[in-house]
Amino acid sequence: MARPPRLRPRFRRTVSASPSRVAERLRTALAEADRPWQWDGYGHHFVIRVPEAERHFWSPQLSIDLEATSDATTVRGLFGPHPSIWTLFVAAYGVAAFAGVTGLLFGLSQWTLDQPPIALWAVPGAALLAGITYGVGLVGRRLGYEQVLQLRDVIDEVFADAPGDSSQGNSSHTPITSPDTAPRPR
Q1: CA 131, CA 55: separation in Å to the nearest integer?
Q2: Other C-beta atoms lying within 10 Å of the C-beta of residue 7
Q3: d(CA 169, CA 186)
Q4: For 10-81+146-176, which CATH class?
Q5: What is the pTM assigned to this prediction?
Q6: 101-126 burial, b if ≥16 CB within 10 A, otherwise e?
Q7: Which of 46, 115, 155, 169 is the 20 to 30 Å CA partner of 23?
Q8: How many of the other CB atoms lie within 10 Å of CB of 15?
Q9: CB neighbourhood size of 166 (10 A)
Q10: Is the dihedral of CA 53, 57, 59, 62 positive or negative?
């Protein structure tokens, strides 16, 4: 069975220009793009979103930070869902953890008092809730995967002919390629 795309894939590349020049290049490319990408730029931080007409619950966004180095700029990108989606998942995992720990403690207390430890049933219920939350997250990543690739293509186009451009750590689409779509080694 093929594995899902990575959770919150990241990339890093170095461009031989100042952060302000890289930011201006990014602003210009996004404003002149043939697709109406929605984006916000605050100094050296950008958030790029899928166009409103194509956006769905699982649509990703790309957060970009520009960091000055001694003679270049490091462009760091992080793909992820809208922050409200992350909050929903953190809350679901928090409820599962709270229910599991509370049920375990209360159930063990019942057991030591020679009462039927009915509260221990909260532990498998909490594990089931955590498993369902994880499964829903996997489905969401697969549903938003194509849009992650589209966002990555935008960045690749922006920096395709940038002087001194080099991908570091994870090159090209490596960090976001799903095993079921990756080229097979020969």
Answers
A1: 26
A2: 10
A3: 23
A4: alpha beta
A5: 0.73
A6: eebbeebeeeeeeeeebebbebbeeb
A7: 169
A8: 22
A9: 13
A10: positive
> Please, what is the angle between helix 122-158 and helix 19-31, to 10°?
90
Torsion of CA 24, 27, 31, 36, to 10 degrees: 160
| pLDDT tens digits for range 34-65 | 778 888 888 899 999 998 889 999 999 999 99
Q: Which residues contact 4 (CB under 8 A, 6 or more apart)?
A: 138, 141, 142, 145, 178
Residues 90-133: tens digit of each pLDDT:
999 999 999 999 999 999 999 999 999 999 999 999 999 999 99
27 phi, psi to nearest 5 deg: -60, -45
Cα distance between residue 86 and residue 80, in whole Å: 9
Q: And the tokens for 3?
A: 């594995």
Domain range list for the chain: 10-81+146-176, 86-130
